[in-house]
Design brief:
Chain lengths: ~300, ~325, ~240
């Protein structure tokens, strides 16, 4: 029973990470109709930036904020410089550019900081933070930080004029222009926010999976699965999907472990996570493309 | 888009390709074994990119997952040679068939997907393949993380060739046959149907084309081509291991597609040669930077690839082949 | 008095297809002008061209300044409000949010609140539904919302594209009455594109008639109304 609770807690912590990355993916999708394949590598790069800031003597939270701000700026720059000219380009061109971004982020991280796996500290003190030994201090911290960031974002979009302008620009760019909203900048801001949220996810997960240029590949795939489950255009759905997928992933591994314990037969475990994600992605894409909470978009011929 | 450059050029190039390697015994440093091996890998890359181009360039279905089909071909060949002592040349048809089946099966759910979503599905496939290859229950077959060690093809009939010379001719023959087959396919009614689906998507159905059948079969054929390339590489490199068949291999294919020219057969060949060249040069450059300059910078070809992918989308969306054709046309007109 | 809006030799293109060939007209400050014509004559395109929503050529001057080729949102910030055909309300935002977004570009927050109250005096029905999602409003209410939102931009010129479309006659009359009030009380000049020529000629003081991308007739509404030939050839009644 205790092990089940542990797995559940771990699933929620992982789910919080997936929720953040999924939210970043949805934010970009809603404003630009593109899937950001480079989201994971961008988040990883941001995490390395925070690591470097700490190497230069800054304390964890200062480095955290610093990296998030730098990522925001990077996101804005990427949108304005690289993606702006592609507004009307064919899908293949856009996908190719995203993959290019992915390759650059990954290889630059490896070039600058090497491919050696590094340890990454956790800012959450071991002492009073855990819950009856079931949920560890870092996991609890991850969930708390995620909820705070998500709450801030929600408040931003719901209650601030800028957030309102961004929502309008995403929903109906033409009409937003007709009320004076500078839609192009709204898109850039959206990218900046997505990059910032991705940075939060990367920094939170680095302690669990260790810092290495390839750390976000699997996480990105799960985030996509989460975004699809929640309905690709639905930010709330993405967050819910993230937690669902996180718990699901751990329950599958747990079940596999139990089966192996009882029968000695290994069917499924931690080594099959990406395969499980693949199955979820294909499943949702082909059978329930609108996800659990989304609406099906009918294409006009 | 014309599938073949003019007859004259083709004959010249093919003649050169056949004759030059024969000079190896006379000029062992220029036409070295290593260079022959390198060119063989370029030919293999060309076949792989050709496969991708058939699906994405000529049929309009985006695939980020061709590394998966390459892996299927490579492992089919490896397992056949390792466990069943199958001769290397027989692994090709087997790899082709198996890759076709996998490609076709993936093409079925892919019928419902387009653009970004198809890219996502193939992306997921590419990411999952190394894990699948390391799966516990398949370990006996696939050799798990360690992979499978193989032997290079033996020179047949006692011909006076080195192993690398034979490897080169073996790959060359396969590539010429496959190129010729692809050119014929594309110039036929089926080829025009494939391209109609790419260009007119929804309208293609109303034109009486069985879109579903063409799309899934093209997926299969495309996978078969790349699978054959994989099988060839198993023989050439004499080794397969799961981690060399991850998503980053798909990035190389994408480079070949984009640099060479989307929707161009000659472009596919150029593209394949290109990415092998850059990959090799990057390694040399990286070693130079680390050893000779003493800088702790792990330079990788992927930075160059990434920058190229982005820059080309603005400057030369038609790739090198497209750029060359356009230049030739302009010259002819003036 | 110099014209508020001057359009000379305006051409417009949808991609490679040309839609306007040579459009010339002037809107005086403070007046209501209407643009009439059959379907496909280019009325909507003209409004879009003024806001640079389509590719254009020629001259468009607002208050003496050249605005052709400026970004749409910058033209709007010069205080030209465009109420497009189909209303263009943000359907998943509330009435309140739809109105507030128009005030987004304004810096004077206190004045905005007063402005909102003022707008509600013209459209009391909107005040009742202030937290309702715009997509759930009736057609007439959405049209009112679109006009109210345009008012929140504190425009000097309002462009309206077929405000009567799909609405019950009584609602249309109410809306047109409000438009007249807005023109007189808020000093907003209006350029009105309408299929319903009779209604438009009652509201506007001056009319231009478009046919296949050119202005073929212009004059005071009275003259256009009373000219039987014009009415039969271009206006269909």
């Amino acid at each position: 029973m205790e092990q089940l609770l542990e797995q559940l807690a771990s699933g929620l912590a992982n789910g919080a990470i997936y929720a953040c990355v999924a939210l970043a993916l949805v934010m970009i999708y809603v404003s630009t109709d593109h899937l950001n394949f480079a989201q994971g590598e961008m988040a990883m790069f941001s995490t390395y930036i925070s690591w470097q800031l700490m190497q230069w003597g800054l304390n964890f939270w200062v480095a955290f904020v610093g990296a998030v701000v730098i990522s925001f700026v990077m996101g804005v720059v990427i949108e304005r410089v690289i993606l702006r000219p592609l507004h009307n380009a064919p899908v293949l061109s856009v996908v190719v550019v995203f993959i290019g971004l992915l390759a650059i982020c990954n290889s630059m991280a490896g070039a600058i900081w090497s491919y050696l796996i590094k340890e990454y500290p956790s800012p959450f003190p071991k002492s009073a933070f855990g819950l009856a030994g079931v949920i560890g201090p870092h996991q609890l911290g991850v969930v708390l930080v995620t909820l705070i960031v998500l709450g801030l974002l929600f408040a931003f979009f719901r209650f601030t004029p800028l957030g309102l302008a961004m929502r309008a620009a995403a929903q109906n760019p033409q009409m937003a222009r007709l009320v004076g909203v500078r839609v192009d900048w709204m898109l850039a801001l959206g990218w900046g926010l997505a990059a910032a949220v991705g940075a939060v996810a990367g920094i939170m997960v680095a302690h669990i999976v260790y810092l290495d240029p390839n750390m976000m590949g699997g996480i990105l795939l799960y985030a996509f699965a989460a975004a699809l489950i929640g309905g690709i255009g639905n930010p709330g759905g993405a967050v819910a999907g993230g937690f669902i997928v996180g718990v699901l992933e751990n329950m599958v591994a747990y079940t596999g472990n139990q089966i192996e314990k009882l029968t000695g037969v290994y069917i499924i475990g931690n080594g099959e996570k990406l395969t499980v994600a693949l199955i979820i992605v294909i499943f949702v894409l082909t059978l329930k493309p609108a996800g659990l909470f989304g609406r099906v978009v009918v294409k006009r011929v | 888009m014309r599938a073949l450059p003019s007859r004259k050029w083709v004959t010249v190039l093919v003649a050169l390709a056949i004759v030059i390697p024969l000079f190896h015994p006379v000029m062992p440093d220029l036409v070295s074994n290593y260079r022959l091996f390198l060119v063989s890998t370029m030919i293999i890359a060309a076949i792989a990119v050709l496969g991708l181009n058939l699906l994405t360039g000529f049929n309009g279905q985006i695939s980020l997952g061709h590394s998966a089909f390459y892996a299927v071909g490579a492992y089919t060949a490896a397992i056949l040679m390792d466990k069943l002592d199958c001769p290397y040349y027989l692994t090709l048809p087997a790899a082709a068939v198996l890759s076709f089946i996998v490609g076709y099966l993936f093409g079925l759910p892919a019928l419902r997907l387009e653009g970004h979503y198809l890219a996502l599905a193939t992306f997921a496939l590419a990411l999952a393949v190394p894990q699948i290859l390391k799966y516990k229950w398949l370990e006996d077959l696939t050799g798990g993380v360690q992979g499978i060690v193989l032997t290079k093809p033996e020179v047949p009939f006692g011909l006076p060739l080195t192993d690398d010379q034979w490897l080169y001719y073996y790959c060359l023959i396969v590539m010429l046959i496959l190129y010729w087959a692809a050119a014929n396919l594309l110039n036929s009614r089926s080829g025009r149907a494939m391209m109609a689906i790419r260009d007119y998507k929804i309208a293609a159905d109303t034109m009486g084309i069985d879109t579903a059948r063409y799309k899934t079969v093209t997926f299969g054929i495309s996978a078969a081509y790349t699978g054959i390339a994989g099988a060839l590489s198993a023989s050439a490199v004499a080794f397969v291991a799961p981690d060399s068949f991850g998503f980053f291999l798909s990035i190389k294919f994408l480079i070949g597609l984009v640099v060479g020219g989307v929707g161009s057969l000659t472009g596919s060949v150029i593209g394949g040669i290109f990415y092998v060249l850059v990959d090799n040069s990057a390694q040399a450059l990286s070693t130079f930077v680390k050893n000779d300059l003493g800088l702790q910078f792990d330079l990788s070809a992927y930075t160059v690839f990434g920058i190229l992918l982005i820059v080309l989308m603005y400057l030369m969306p038609m790739g090198i082949a497209g750029g060359l054709f356009a230049a030739v046309r302009r010259l002819r007109r003036s | 008095m110099a014209a508020l809006l001057e359009v000379k030799g305006l051409k417009a293109f949808y991609g490679p297809t040309q839609s306007l060939y040579d459009v010339n007209f002037e809107i005086p400050t403070g007046g209501i002008t209407t643009l009439l014509g059959a379907n496909g004559a280019g009325k909507t395109t003209t409004l879009r061209a003024i806001c640079n929503m389509v590719r254009t050529d020629g001259t468009v001057r607002f208050d003496g300044h050249d605005i052709r080729g400026k970004a749409t949102e910058e033209i709007v910030r010069l205080r030209i409000a465009h109420v497009p055909e189909g209303r263009g309300t943000f359907t998943s935002l509330t009435v309140d949010e739809n109105l507030r977004i128009a005030a987004y570009t304004r810096k004077d927050k206190a004045a905005v609140k007063a402005e909102l109250e003022r707008v509600f005096t013209y459209f009391p029905r909107l005040k009742e539904r202030i937290q309702q999602q715009a997509g759930t409003l009736s057609g007439g209410e959405q049209q009112m919302l679109a006009i109210a939102r345009a008012l929140m931009l504190k425009p000097r010129l309002m462009l309206l594209d077929e405000p009567s479309f799909g609405l019950a006659p009584l609602i249309v009359l109410e809306i047109f009455r409000i438009l007249r009030r807005i023109n007189e009380e808020e000093k907003v000049s209006i350029l009105l594109v309408e299929q319903n020529a009779a209604l438009a000629l009652d509201l506007a003081s001056h009319a231009y008639v478009l046919e296949t991308g050119r202005v073929v007739m212009s004059g005071p509404s009275e003259d256009v109304k009373n000219d039987e030939n014009i009415r039969k050839s271009y206006l269909g009644y």
